[in-house]
Write a structure and sequence with these properties.
The protein is an alpha/beta fold and 394 residues long. It is built from 12 helices and 11 strands. It has a 7-stranded parallel β-sheet, sandwiched between helices. β6 (181-186), α6 and β7 form a beta-alpha-beta unit. α1 (48-73) packs across α3, α2 packs parallel to α3 (110-116) and α4 runs parallel beside α11. 40% of the residues are buried. The mean pLDDT is 95. The protein binds thiamine diphosphate. Residues 108, 156-158, 185-189, 214, 216, 218-220, 281, 285 line the site of thiamine diphosphate.
Amino acid sequence: MQNRNHLARVTTTHQVHVIENGLIDIPMLQILSPQGEIQGDCPPNIDESTARRMLEVMQFTRVLDERMVSAQRQGRISFYLASTGEEAASVASAAALSDKDMIMSQYREQGALAWRGYSPRQFMDQMFSNYHDPNKGRQMPIHYGDRKLNFMTISSPLATQIPQAAGYAYGQKMAGIDAITLCYFGEGAASEGDFHAGLNMAAVLSCPVIFFCRNNGYAISTPAEEQFAGDGIASRGIGYGVKTIRIDGNDPLAVYAATEHARNIALSQSCPVLIEAMTYRLAAHSTSDDPSGYRSKDEEEKWRRKDPIVRFSAWLKSKGWLDEDDLDKRLDRMRQTVLSALKEAEQEPVSPIDDLVTDVFDHVPWHLKEQISALKKHIQKYPDAYPKTAGRLK
Ligand SMILES: Cc1ncc(C[n+]2csc(CCOP(=O)(O)OP(=O)(O)O)c2C)c(N)n1
């Protein structure tokens, strides 16, 4: 007999009944095989120009990553974080959204921002903390944000964007706006309390938000098996009463189809949806990390064979949507564009040091005025102790 008791679906049993992890299968949606062939009999619902642009933005993201890791190695920027191997997760999910939807990202989703139209120069201005950086040099490189593109500024503390996304989506619902919020995070961030608070809040308050988890196997050097014992992150969505989809995160068509579907659900039913994208971080965690200390080359090789760009290119080619002769020229053009944007941004002056405290308070308080003036005196006395990005005196 079943009844609803404090919202739990209670079925009475007369023997001890233990529910074990793994009793419920959560299937993983895969539309394209690693070789780029269509699986199953549902043809993908995507037009030629969207598919072509998706490939282009994925390629751009990889080129950007390659150049910026080199720029960090040359000492031109202090830090970078590549998304190599995970381009499908960010680009194809952003492609399935409306531009009106808010994106709240973790930090490895530069592909989504590039999809929205953030220019190479904008990427560079932020990373060089120059005068044109909307953060005015007050954030580390890769902490992008753009109001016009509905892309919330990234913040370093993990998972803070998750309850914020629930709240933002609640606001969209209250305002009657025809838009949702998509929130990216890694499986590591899902260990934070904010993940649990955010999902529960979104479920109880029926917020139109997609929680998009990139399960790439590692939180820096900690592998998934040392992070949790449950069935990935998808099982937690079910626990919170959140509609849940698991997908192959290296399959752009699966990412696109699932996100499009999740968006329809979130908007029409006004509720959250959790997507768990199974993927792999082929790059180091960041330029401060060396993965050879915690994983094998064999493991990396296995995932390299599932490269989303190679897989998607093979499918586009089979459709006659990829001009291979153009490919090398296009990649060359992208490298040139990134390089010239880098050189231009590098030459720009940094923000004045007063920007540290302006637009934080209406009137700068006396103690901060004192600190800024002491800092300026120190810089004048010991200029060599400060990097070029420390700010201008005037
Ligand atoms: C609250 C908090 N704790 C720790 C860190 C340090 N930290 C930065 S990234 C990271 C790993 C996150 O892993 P995951 O969420 O799986 O994302 P991935 O880097 O794999 O894309 C950690 C522990 C942080 N930024 N914030």
